[in-house]
Write a structure and sequence with these properties.
Length: 112
């Protein structure tokens, strides 16, 4: 019995200035209905199971406002806590991570 497989592609386009600093970022995920959407920052982590390490691509445009970067990081940390909980079922550590995200937001005055 053969197994049906599907392929889905996600593209990230990076436009660089003469110093190779990102000026524009866009991404496409046609299966998700996204086509050349603009972005100001991208954080991508990939697990290399051969080397047992995380590979990272961290990009942001030179006009990404610092206040938006702080919100971006906070929202990313919250999402990581949620993903960690779904992936491991470790509610206690996920809650600890969320405690940190609340502390992070408080210290950066992100919560009203």
């Amino acid at each position: 019995m053969s197994k049906n497989t599907f392929t889905s592609e996600i593209k990230i386009n990076v436009e660089l200035d003469e110093n190779r600093i990102p000026e524009n970022l866009s991404w496409t995920a046609e299966d998700g209905g996204v086509r050349e959407a603009q972005a100001k920052a991208v954080l991508l982590s990939i697990w290399d199971n051969q080397q047992k390490e995380t590979l990272r691509i961290d990009l942001w445009t030179k006009d990404m406002p610092v206040d938006e970067m702080k919100v971006f990081f906070h929202q990313t940390l919250v999402a990581l806590a949620d993903t960690y909980q779904r992936a491991t079922q470790d509610d206690k550590m996920a809650d600890t991570m969320r405690d940190f995200t609340d502390f992070f937001a408080e210290k950066l005055n992100l919560k009203a």
